[in-house]
Specification:
This protein has helices at residues 5-11, 50-60, 75-84, 94-98, 115-124, 139-152, 166-176, 206-209, 221-237, 316-329, 362-375, 382-402, 423-428; strands spanning 41-46, 65-71, 89-91, 105-108, 128-131, 156-158, 183-190, 243-249, 262-268, 274-280, 288-294, 297-300, 305-308, 350-351, 406-407. By secondary structure, the chain is of the alpha/beta class. It folds into two domains: 5-163 and 360-388, NAD(P)-binding Rossmann-like Domain (Rossmann fold), CATH 3.40.50; 179-358, 2-Layer Sandwich (Dihydrodipicolinate Reductase, domain 2). The chain has a nine-stranded mixed sheet with strand order 14-13-12-11-7-10-9-8-15, with helices on one face. A six-stranded parallel sheet has the order 3-2-1-4-5-6, sandwiched between helices.
Length: 429
């Protein structure tokens, strides 16, 4: 579902003369939209696969966008993309698309191992770039891409749609305002019960179509799923973790894949706070969620709800059970008070925006990219948040494959004062 920008800003209380959220400075991309009201961005799509076409669907409805070209080497993807934009010129080689002087910007939604070279080539050709996450296949590639963005001054967006999801933006305002007290832990997971495979018309196309399942082209669940949720944790805590450890295995989908189907990671901050992330794709009961745990309350972002620690008194029946347990076991010497489990909080919570979430921010992210590309102005924090989200999941993947507890690789610090890694701040660490 596409969300109107005005509805988005209204939901966050940012219309009129109000200031845009300090916790989300990239929203300033919408502050001067009148500048582009009569313009159209000539856009090329490199990789119109399933994700690429989803984003094309939003872009094709944007009156400020003209999708003039697509590039892919797989004909079924080309055919499906032409159903969305029949007039687009087709290239089998993305470099030919980049030579098209009409094109001002490109969207890159190709397999992970191809991102870096395409993005570098695009910026070298003077194109603004939207690159799907994770931006690089390894940390060195991520740094090259970010540095090229700084060198060229071109707009660089990454596929972190939660940055424009209204429930996330509002929740982060509340977290940073101290509404939920001191945050000491962030827990997140993304569970499914399916094999992640796609149908292959002929065997020779197996690794081409199912690239996510093979080490040469993918880092699996860490780069495809964790990249979204780890960024939520650092956004909430306002800093980067100091160490990471984890474990991965293939427990259920033993079908020739090379990437894990079961992952657990633990990120540790210098003050002892924790960020957990995991994924199991053989059980979907708990789905996906990000939980921010504070001393005064809890936020569950996917549900779009928050829960205060202190609520109305429990129903009489629950109170009676608790008192009964305490009477029987409260003075038992061998167990002590640590045995008595706290009753789970029955609080049903409140919706962050007053209603159940309807959108995930993808349409607004593409709209923000269009505004930025038309004005040539990079919104604060967008490239940096996407960069560090990519580094975090790749760093976690390295800890898993090496089976070691790893310190943050400080050679990949960039100048970003939000996380304390500006040049002066990094020198003090």
């Amino acid at each position: 579902m596409r969300q109107d920008r005005r509805e988005f800003l209204k939901a966050l209380g940012l219309l009129g003369g109000g200031l845009l959220a300090a916790t989300s400075p990239w929203l300033n991309v919408f502050a001067e939209v009148k500048d582009t009201s009569a313009e159209r961005l000539r856009l090329g799509i490199i990789g119109p696969g399933s994700r690429g076409r989803l984003l094309m669907g939003f872009l094709a409805k944007n009156p400020k966008v003209d999708i003039v070209a697509i590039a892919d080497i797989y004909q079924p993807s080309i055919d499906a993309a032409l159903e969305i934009v029949p007039t687009a010129k087709v290239y089998k080689n993305y470099r030919r698309l980049l030579e098209d002087k009409r094109i001002q910007a490109v969207l890159v939604a190709t397999p992970l191992n191809t991102h870096c070279q395409i993005v570098l080539d695009a910026m070298e050709a003077g194109k603004h770039v939207y690159c799907e996450k994770t931006i690089g296949y390894d940390m060195a590639q991520c740094k090259k891409m970010y540095d090229k963005h700084l060198e060229t001054g071109l707009v660089f967006f990454t596929g972190q749609q939660r940055l424009f999801d209204p429930r996330y933006v509002k929740a982060m305002q509340m977290v940073h305002d101290g509404v939920f007290g001191e945050v000491t832990k962030v827990r997140s997971w993304w569970n499914r019960n399916r094999d992640w495979r796609r149908d292959v018309p002929e065997p020779r196309l197996e690794k081409f179509i199912n690239w996510r399942l093979y080490k040469a082209s993918s880092k699996g669940l860490m780069t495809e799923l964790a990249c979204h949720q780890l960024q939520v944790g650092t956004w909430a805590l306002g800093k980067l973790p100091a160490q990471v450890m984890g474990h991965g295995s293939i427990n259920y989908w033993k079908d020739g894949r090379e990437v894990y189907d079961n992952i657990s990671t633990l990120y540790i901050f210098d003050d002892g706070k924790k960020m957990e992330w995991g994924s199991d794709i053989a059980n979907k009961f708990y789905g996906l969620e990000e939980q921010i745990l504070g001393s005064k309350g809890t936020v569950e972002l996917e549900r779009g709800k928050f829960f205060y620690e202190e609520i109305a008194p429990q129903p009489a029946f629950i109170q009676m059970i608790n008192e009964w347990q305490q009477d029987i076991f409260g003075d038992t010497a061998f167990a002590g008070t640590s045995w008595v489990a706290e009753t789970a909080n029955p609080n049903r919570g409140e919706y962050i925006l007053g209603k159940k979430p309807e959108v995930d921010g993808s349409s607004l992210l593409t709209e923000a990219f269009v505004e930025a590309a038309l004005t040539g102005r990079q919104p604060a924090g967008i490239a940096e948040e996407g960069y560090y989200a990519s580094i975090l999941c790749l760093w976690g993947h390295e800890a898993i494959t090496r089976n070691e507890r790893l310190d943050f690789p400080k050679e990949y610090y960039i100048d970003y004062d939000v996380y304390g890694t500006s040049e002066s701040q990094a020198a003090e660490i």
